[in-house]
Amino acid sequence: MRIDVMGVEFDNITIDEAVSQALDLMREQRAAYVVTPNPEIVMAARENASLSDALAGADLVLADGIGVVKGAKILGTPLKEKIPGIDFAARLFSLLSKQNGSVFLFGAKPGVAELAAQNLLKQYPGLVIAGTNNGYFTDDAPILDRINEASPDLLLVCLGFPKQEIWMAEHTGALNVGLMAGLGGSLDVLAGVAERAPEKWQRAGLEWLYRLKKEPRRIGRMMQLPKFLFSVIGRRLGGKQHAG
Ligand code: UDP
């Protein structure tokens, strides 16, 4: 069942259910795709039809972060839990490594995906790295060829939004991969280039605040969060002024 949070339909599932559905999709081998929208992406989708269509066309729409979960609760249609994209990916890596499954890492600045690959191999020795490619390109034809040749079980598409969602929507069904997942800055985290919040902060739902502390230049982007909450409250109260 899907739940509408300000125009984006989220799957109302736990991380366990998300992982199990992802494995089923992977077996179907039709390059289905997973998106992990946060409040910033939800707000952007209201003004970007291509992004909105790409989100609507996804096979799995996971609530990445506490903001979306809080929003759904305020709207009176609660979601089961938050599913941080990077936790979802970790669960898939772990399962893939047990069956010598493969992953292709696509995105981030040159060198980052390779670093992420080295770290992943240390943590998940059975995992096969089918290939890597940075996320700064003008022509994607050679990248599509490399991905198809590598034919990975899982393709991480980490180009930031809205690029990654639109890229996956454009290529779903046409790629020789099990499943794709659009995971924003995850390769930076896996590479150790960006740091994730300590667990205490994650549990308190303050991952966003930690990130802001580390990267204060994100303040402009983060102002989307209060805007999102105001819109949610406006909609809940039935007012048009914020819900618009
Ligand atoms: N990125 C990319 N190609 C682009 C633009 C961005 O590969 O054309 C990468 C960027 O290097 C970073 C990721 O996409 O690794 C986006 O990271 P950000 O922290 O903005 O994403 P978030 O997790 O907040 O969505």
Relevant terms:
six-stranded parallel β-sheet, alpha/beta, globular, binds uridine-5'-diphosphate, 13 helices, 244 residues
Report the major sheet: 6 strands, parallel
Bound molecules: uridine-5'-diphosphate
| Beta-strand residue fraction | 5-15%
| Helix percentage | 40-55%
Write the element-wise H/E pattern from the N-terminal end onward. EEHEHHEHHEHEHEHEHHHHH
Distance between the amino and carboxyl termini: 25 Å
Total number of strands = 8
Identify the overall geometry: globular
Average pLDDT number: 94
Structural class: alpha/beta
Rg over CA atoms: 17 Å
How many helical stretches? 13
List segments where confidence is low: pLDDT < 50 over at least 5 consecutive residues: none
- Main sheet strand line-up: 4-3-8-7-5-6
Give a short overview.
The protein is an alpha/beta fold and 244 residues long. 49% of the residues lie in helices and 14% in strands. Uridine-5'-diphosphate binds at residues 107-109, 135-136, 158-161, 163, 184-185, 187-188.
